[in-house]
Amino acid sequence: MLRVEQLSKSFGQVEAIKDITVEFAQGEFNCIVGPSGCGKTTLLKCLSGLMPPTGGRVALDGVTVTRPPKQMALVFQDYSRSLFPWMTVRQNVAFPLRNKGLAKSEITRLVEEAVEAVGLTHAIDRYPWQLSGGMQQRTSIARAIAYQPEILLMDEPFASVDAQTRANLEDLMLSIKARYGMTILFVTHDIDESVYLGDRIVVLSSSPTVVQEILTVPLPVARDQITTKEDPQFLHLRSHVFREIMAAQAG
Ligand SMILES: Nc1ncnc2c1ncn2[C@@H]1O[C@H](COP(=O)(O)OP(=O)(O)OP(=O)(O)O)[C@@H](O)[C@H]1O
Q1: Which residue ranges have their beta carbon within 6 Å of ligand 1?
Q2: Whose CA is nearest to atom 31 of ligand 1?
Q3: How far is the CA of 77 from the centre of ligand 1 (A)?
Q4: CA-to-CA distance for 236 and 44, rounded, in angstroms?
Q5: Which of 34, 136, 228, 231 allows an S-S link to 223, with CB 3.0 to 4.6 Å?
Q6: How far apart are CA 112 and CA 127, in angstroms?
Q7: For residue range 82-121, what is the model confidence (pLDDT) as tens digits?
């Protein structure tokens, strides 16, 4: 269980996060949305222990997070800067496993399984510059899942890919969640994406930020890019989230 307790974060005079309290249960897909600049990235940085909060705390299974916990992996928007250009897909995915004290054969197994899960087995020995943007982001996702995190933090991971690739990567995330069962915290600007992927949607207010609303997504677990997005419940929920964000923006 990941718990955020009365978290606040200021940068000098700028109060980015005012007071956030929220819990993330094991195995849940949580989408985090909110107006531009409301502090979504700041929240993820505090959650991951990369940035100390000004007040409150983040606790993972009751223990205060002060540095990136071993059980967490992160995927960022900018895949082109997160992969090592001189390493192949296989080497990039294996990189974080080097310090886990695993046998070489186990590393090979985890890497090959993760690369297969993201559909890149055919490209495992290619370098990042030989891959499309979507394939590079798949490599980042494979690197995160090979690490076998309990919690996966993703900061607008699909913002830089085209619409078709984005839809494919969304479906990839649903299959990864079903296969590995990790807790996922997924920051997105895209309201449709948040409703399509989420078990829950955490709507943040504008800065100084609090949690404005937490919605449970009542859609069936099995989702489909066409039929789910035609479902009246989907349409109702996306309008609701959109109104919430407009209201947050208006202050
Ligand atoms: N290192 C920093 N120093 C000073 N101010 C910062 C820093 N990082 C973030 N901020 C400020 O904190 C607020 C929240 O920024 P943050 O990037 O977390 O928002 P966001 O919701 O992720 O933004 P976006 O929607 O544009 O992705 C903004 O006002 C930003 O200018």
Answers
A1: 11, 14, 16, 36-42, 207
A2: 37
A3: 15
A4: 28
A5: 228
A6: 16
A7: 899 999 999 999 999 988 889 999 999 999 999 998 899 9
Q: Beta strands 200-204 and 72-75: pairing type?
A: unpaired
Q: Which two tokens stand for residue 40?
A: 């979504």
Residue nearest to atom 16 of ligand 1 (CA): 39
- Residues with Cβ within 8 Å of residue 42, at least 6 apart in sequence: 9, 16, 17, 51
Atom of ligand 1 nearest to the CA of 43: 18
Q: How many CA atoms lie within 13 A of 134 on its CB side?
A: 15
- The residue type of 209 is T
Distance 246 CA to ligand 1 centre (A): 19
CA of 119 to the centre of ligand 1 (A): 34
Query: In whole angstroms, what is the distance from residue 215 CA to residue 237 CA?
Result: 9
How do residues 42-60 score in pLDDT, each as one tens digit? 999 999 999 999 999 999 9
Q: Write the pLDDT tens digit of every residue in 196-217.
A: 999 999 999 998 889 999 999 9
**pTM for the predicted model, two decimal places:** 0.92
